[in-house]
């Protein structure tokens, strides 16, 4: 699967002010001329492991927040929402324990690795960006023993695949991989344009009726307020609860009716 990735870099010319003023990530500014020459960074995280009292130290290799690499591909550094979601999954092992888990926009891969260690039966971490996928695959190889497909290894497995958000890619991904009990995402909403394709992807790949989409967001990049996200989810029959600060859990609403979904989304656009 790894060699079938298509070429996709999140922002080949880098992030910055665009004409409509939307695509601006304030904290990823121009490179600091006083910064160290070495753009790489190792992020260390202590993780609870399901069924043991000994925490696991996970080391993720990526790039500094203010590096040129991050300026083009946000997924090659670790964002604030990721350690918080990883903590949440560790504190609530019932969320991923015994479940199939899909991560969207996984970047360096911390949350998927946390889901793996909190007892998920099968974790598939995804990203659209080739550079992020390279880093993610390397980090999974370094930090996880059971890399592969659960149906082959018969053990808890973790794999990395490319998934670009939106209905066309999600449809193909569904044919190959099926649906998931839990979908997770950290810091994956930072442009208005990404809200619809991200949620379309969730709707395509989330198991019914008990699937959950767990989203972690702490920064409101580009003024993408919670209301925008919650309303777009509601149009897709996903109801939101907020079990703790920055954590949003979306579940299928009782009124879900597949015939009405597409009409409702069209109304919203
Ligand atoms: C801000 S980073 C967050 C990375 C990681 N979840 C974290 O919190 O450290 C956003 C991630 O979403 C991915 N992404 C953005 N737009 C995407 C799209 N349309 N399809 C797939 N991945 C996308 C980026 O490549 C990047 O890895």
From TrEMBL:
Signal peptide residue numbers: none
Q: Which InterPro entries match?
A: Methyltransf_16 (IPR019410), SAM-dependent_MTases_sf (IPR029063)
**Superkingdom, taxonomy of origin:** Eukaryota
List the residue ranges of the region (Disordered): 1-22
The name under which this protein is listed is Uncharacterized protein
The protein's organism comes out as Cyclostephanos tholiformis
């Amino acid at each position: 699967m790894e060699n079938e990735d298509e070429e996709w870099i999140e922002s080949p010319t880098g992030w910055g002010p665009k004409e409509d003023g939307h695509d601006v990530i304030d904290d990823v500014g121009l490179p600091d001329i006083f910064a160290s020459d070495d753009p790489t960074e190792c992020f260390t995280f202590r993780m609870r492991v399901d069924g043991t009292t000994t925490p696991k130290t996970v080391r993720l290799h990526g790039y500094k927040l203010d590096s040129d690499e991050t300026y083009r591909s946000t997924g090659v550094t670790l964002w604030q929402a990721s350690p918080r979601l990883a903590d949440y999954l560790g504190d609530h092992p019932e969320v991923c324990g015994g479940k199939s888990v899909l991560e969207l926009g996984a970047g360096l891969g911390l949350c998927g690795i946390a889901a793996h260690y909190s007892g998920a039966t099968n974790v598939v971490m995804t990203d659209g960006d080739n550079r992020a996928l390279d880093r993610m695959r390397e980090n999974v190889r370094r930090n996880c023993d059971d890399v592969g497909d659960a149906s082959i290894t018969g053990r808890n497995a973790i794999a990395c695949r490319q998934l670009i958000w939106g209905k066309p890619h999600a449809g193909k991904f569904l044919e190959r991989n099926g649906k998931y009990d839990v979908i997770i995402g950290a810091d994956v909403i930072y442009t208005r344009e990404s809200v619809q394709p991200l949620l379309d992807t969730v709707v395509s790949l989330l198991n019914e009726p008990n699937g959950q989409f767990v989203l972690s967001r702490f920064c409101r990049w580009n003024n993408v307020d919670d209301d925008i996200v919650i309303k777009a989810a509601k149009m897709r029959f996903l109801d939101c609860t907020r079990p703790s600060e920055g954590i949003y859990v979306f579940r299928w609403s009782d009124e879900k009716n597949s015939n009405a979904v597409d009409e409702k989304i069209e109304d919203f656009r």
